[in-house]
Design goal:
- The complex is a heterodimer of chains A (about 325) and B (about 325).
- With about 325 residues, chain A is an all-alpha fold.
- Chain A has 2 domains: about 1-50, no CATH class; about 80-315, MetI-like (MetI-like fold, Orthogonal Bundle), CATH 1.10.3720.
- Chain A is about 65% helix and about 0% strand.
- In chain A, helix 1 (about 30-60) packs antiparallel against helix 12 (about 285-315) and helix 11 packs antiparallel against helix 12 (about 285-315).
- The longest helix of chain A is centred in the first third of the chain and has 32 residues, at about 90-120.
- Chain B is mainly alpha-helical.
- Chain B has 16 helices and 2 strands.
- In chain B, helix 1 (about 15-40) crosses helix 15 (about 280-300) and helix 9 (about 180-200) packs antiparallel against helix 12 (about 230-250).
- The longest helix of chain B is centred in the middle third of the chain and has 32 residues, at about 105-135.
- The chains are: A mainly alpha (about 325), B mainly alpha (about 325).
- At the A-B interface, helix 1, helix 3, helix 4, helix 5 and helix 7 of A face helix 1, helix 6, helix 7, helix 8 and helix 9 of B.
Chain lengths: ~325, ~325
């Protein structure tokens, strides 16, 4: 990974004899090119991301309802926020979200790390099987959620059948049961995203130079010590990166869970984003939903900051 | 990234066998849902809801026919009166005492996914290439802040941004239009496109451009004639990543489209409601939707790591 040396394109000093002053380069100046090349992207992002964001913040202080554009809009100050933070329901949605994020991360790190260590043994055919394992994470989460509803059918689904076959518990209603639904979404997310953790752990493992292991061998370190003192510290930044990114994504989780359980049964799997969509596009409480959106933004932005720091660490 | 790095510290043969058994076992389990959904798309509706689930079955194209058509139930006498069926799919539907009344909306929705996917990919890669080159090669004030800003737009919860975008698009008449969705997906994909492409440009030695400038090219000509050809592979990989994202996106599509520009992901679940739990049709739609992504994933396997880390990790 190269360190960025920020000199603009200048002929290196080594060829000083041929060097000309930058102005002698014909055509657009560097500054102009840089501006022209970057501006369109920034403008588009400002229009489609930042402007709406500012608008959301404004709306969060009002009682605006998007389905009644003609209605008078009142400034509520922080009332929406007070109502949000004082509402028991919101905490239960955040709790459902936390349950989802924590368990998906724990299980996926355990399986993903294990798989990475195994794949790293470089048995014959490892690349092929790795590619097969990676397929689920590239699929459309909403479509995955849709077809898992079929797999989860209690009377006819293959999931229920396989579990019944091995345990003899009879048909299992993963989606319809209050107890099992939170785990139903954890299972599907794990099926989809474990490869993500595995792939980053693999990258971490491959970044460890062999001489460290050779040195450990010389020092008579056991396999456990080697793992604890060499492997783990080296792959930790990669693992952190994976967990942060997936954690943020799962904190925002919407598509897969909407299609799988649509927040049910009751509101056992009503994650923050799903509730936000209900408030905004079903109850049309735009102001209230915007306040919720702002709270989610702030949380995600904080996590995002940490993510970028981790990204830069891994880069080195 | 090469999936098989050669290690001096090699595993023992026995360790390799154990690892292979476990990894292959996991891979097979992970494949069950996918294989099952493809198999279901070739089942008849009764076979799709039999218990225990049928592993061996008589394959039929009924699911695909149902996916692409709308049908109505008729009396056997009426169907007799129509004369012999004209096509194989007419015959297939008549076995269930139905006649085909017209095409379904699936083909149109699928085309919307294609149009919006390719449109937004082209724009995101075009803008991303320019920005990535500038970030890589020039002194840009506040460069790191700008790059962080671009990446942070990726982090926004789509449902949260959807509220004001919905209002904004309503004002501009962009709700449920291809153009609106293309612009939106372009904005969402820009972060990935800029970061990934910047990584690719960083890897191209500057000496080529410098030599071209010394030979009398303008800076812009050097970019077009020297750098762009070397970015080809990177641009192709980035384009596929952007395409897959746009192809898979659901939240914005659900909230901002309803008909004209609706893409396949929000539409596929609707099939469940329409056919009264016609699972083979849903499975057929799912299969047709997932197959291109699986193909691209296999083609891109060496670049996946780069794609999911925004170009930061490159092995």
């Amino acid at each position: 990974m190269s360190d960025h040396v920020d000199d603009s394109l200048s002929v290196p000093a080594a060829s000083a004899a041929r060097r000309r002053p930058p102005r002698a380069v014909r055509g657009l100046s560097d500054r102009w090119i840089a501006t022209l090349f970057i501006a369109p992207s920034i403008v588009l992002l400002l229009a489609i991301n930042i402007f709406p964001l500012i608008w959301t913040v404004y709306l969060s202080f009002t009682n605006f309802r998007a389905n009644q554009p003609g209605r008078e809009v009142n400034w509520l100050g922080t009332k929406n926020y007070a109502r949000l933070l004082g509402s028991e329901d919101v905490w239960s949605y955040l709790q459902a979200t936390a349950h989802f994020v924590v368990w998906t991360m724990l299980i996926q790190v355990a399986i993903g790390l294990g798989l990475a260590l195994l794949v790293n043994k470089n048995f014959k055919g490892a690349p092929v099987w790795t590619t097969i394992i990676l397929i689920p994470m590239m699929l459309s989460p909403a479509v995955v959620g849709t077809f898992w509803t079929y797999l989860y059918q209690p009377q006819t689904g293959i999931f229920s059948y396989i579990v019944d076959f091995f345990t003899g518990l009879g048909p299992i209603d993963m989606i319809g049961s209050v107890k099992l639904a939170p785990w139903a979404i954890v299972i599907v997310d794990t099926w989809m995203w474990t490869p993500y953790i595995m792939l980053l752990c693999l990258a971490g493992l491959r970044s460890i130079p062999d001489y460290l292991y050779e040195a450990a061998e010389v020092d008579r370190a056991g396999p456990f010590q080697t793992f604890w003192y060499i492997t783990l510290p080296r792959i930790l930044p990669f693992l952190m990166l994976a967990v942060l990114f997936r954690g943020i994504e799962n904190f925002k989780m919407f598509d897969m869970v909407v299609e799988l359980t649509s927040g049910g049964p009751g509101s056992t799997t009503e994650l923050a984003s799903i509730n936000l969509k209900r408030e905004a596009f079903e109850k049309w409480r735009t102001g209230y939903a915007s306040a919720f959106a702002v709270i989610l933004f702030v949380t995600v932005f904080g996590l995002g900051n940490i993510y970028v720091k981790a990204l830069n660490r891994v880069k080195q | 990234m090469s999936i098989a790095a050669v290690s001096v510290v090699d595993a023992t043969p026995r360790g390799k066998i154990i690892a292979a058994v476990l990894v292959i076992g996991y891979a097979l389990i992970t494949m069950i849902p996918l294989i099952w959904i493809v198999a279901t798309s070739f089942k008849s509706p009764p076979d799709s809801i039999s218990y225990p689930p049928k592993v061996i079955f008589q394959p039929t194209l009924e699911g695909y026919v149902n996916l692409f058509t709308t049908r109505s139930r008729q009396t056997p006498e009426y169907i007799e009166s129509l004369g012999p069926p004209k096509t194989w799919y007419d015959a297939l539907v008549r076995e269930r005492n139905m006649i085909i009344t017209g095409p379904s909306r699936f083909a149109g929705r699928y085309m919307n996914s294609v149009i919006i996917g390719f449109g937004s990919t082209f724009l995101a890669v075009f803008l991303g290439t320019l920005a990535a080159y500038a970030f890589s090669r020039f002194r840009v004030p506040l460069k790191d802040d700008l790059l962080f800003f671009i990446l942070s737009t990726r982090m926004m919860p789509p449902v949260a941004v959807a509220i004001p975008i919905y209002l904004m698009y309503r004002e501009l008449g962009l709700n449920d239009t291809h153009l609106g969705m293309i612009l939106l997906y372009t904005a969402v994909n820009l972060s990935l496109s800029v970061w990934l492409l910047k990584g690719f440009v960083d890897e191209i030695p500057r000496e080529y451009e410098e030599a071209a400038v010394v030979d009398g090219y303008t800076r812009f000509q050097a970019f077009v004639k020297v750098v762009l050809p070397q970015m080809r592979a990177g641009i192709a990989a980035t384009a596929i990543f952007c395409l897959i994202f746009a192809w898979n996106e659901y939240a914005f599509a659900l909230l901002l489209t309803s008909g004209t520009a609706q893409t396949a992901p929000p539409f596929i679940p609707i099939i469940i409601g329409e056919g009264g739990l016609d699972w083979p049709a849903v499975a057929a739609g799912t299969t047709l939707f997932l197959v291109p992504v699986v193909v691209f994933t296999v083609l891109l396997r060496k670049q996946l790591l780069r794609g999911i880390t925004f170009g930061a990790v490159r092995r």
